[in-house]
Amino acid sequence: MKISGGHTEKGVEVGNCYDKYGSRNPIKSLAKVSAASLNGKINSMKSPVSKNKKKLRVIFITRKWPPAVGGMETYSVELVNELKQHTDLLVKSLPGRSDGQPPSILALFRFFLSATALIAIGRRVDVVHIGDLVLWPLALIARIFQPHARIIATAYGLDIVYGLRKGLLPRIYRLYLAVCVRFCRHFLRIIAISHATAALCRGAGFSDVVVVPLGVRSVPVGEVMDVNPDRYVLFVGRLVRRKGVSWFIRNVLPRLDQDITLKIAGTCWDRTEWEAITSDPRVEFLGVVSNKDLVHLRRKALVVIMPNVDTGGLDFEGFGLTALEAAADGGVLLVSGIDGIVDAVVDGRTGFLLPPGNADAWVKKITEIAGWSVEQRRAFIAVAHETVIRDFSWERVARETLAAYEAHAGEKK
User: Fold this and answer.
1) Quick one: angle between helices 321-328 and 291-300, nearest 10?
2) By CB atoms within 10 Å of each CB, which of 34, 45, 90, 406 scores lowest?
3) Cβ-based neighbour number of residue 85 at 10 Å
């Protein structure tokens, strides 16, 4: 096994409470998601707020913020960048740690107190949007101190699934979430980032749930048309069991041509996964790499993989933002058709959905793509990029989020 270091690009430093932001994205730049409007269809690309209409006053509260790294951090930053163009937006954010990890428990407690104060003694707003269900008590506080506001919370999957695990802390969290359902379900609208996440929310007892899949920021098509791949398979992300990397190493990689290797860019959070990647000399662990290097790695890879496996409901992929990134950057994507990933891939156009845990299907598809002609690969990349641009934008995410705000407003008495 080869091990090489990497680096991350620094993002924009942020405080706790903002009205304005710079245009640069401090996480990974992206491109566009499967369109799922509040009514199931989007017919217009017009701005979500007309010029003559008074802007909604919105507070967006999130504990998912750079320099912590992840899909929900990207969601928070990109949504803020879009919403600030159409709303009178106030952001209360809790930055993660400089090493990319989430904030500490003490920092989270202090953040909760300051967010409470903002809601209780701050300006009157039309919408209070809470970034995830872990912060749900802020919904009750908003109900008391902002009685005329619409109250929204985003759910991303793990904030539901964690309570299904074994152990004392998951049991406590399960009760914690049950209290939320008991006291908040009649006024709290949930924005789920995928249909699979929405199903989890409804199963937990939430009734007012809408789906707004995530987005990605695109690059010009000419920059992604690299049709001469190297002989490696690429995985990007955190190494945890549900990502399926150890399964791929043990069940798929040995059946591929011997000159095909596996490159892994990311961080390892699981001992079993680490043991798997260090056991095979055909695996190269790159560690954390820069955004620029990730783009190059995706374009030059034979395929980019997300071989997620079924964890029996104990872990969950809420959406799969790296799938969109791969298509946006000119990679050929193979993913397991599981959890929220299915909302991030248009099968046959932006990537290929394969049966999770079916090694035969994975070996067959990788072998097939290895045999593509230059014309076949160029045609697929072009269609994938066109589809991402059309269907998977952060503008669309903001438009559907605003639609959820407005629909909720119409229901308030």
Assistant:
1) 70
2) 45
3) 13
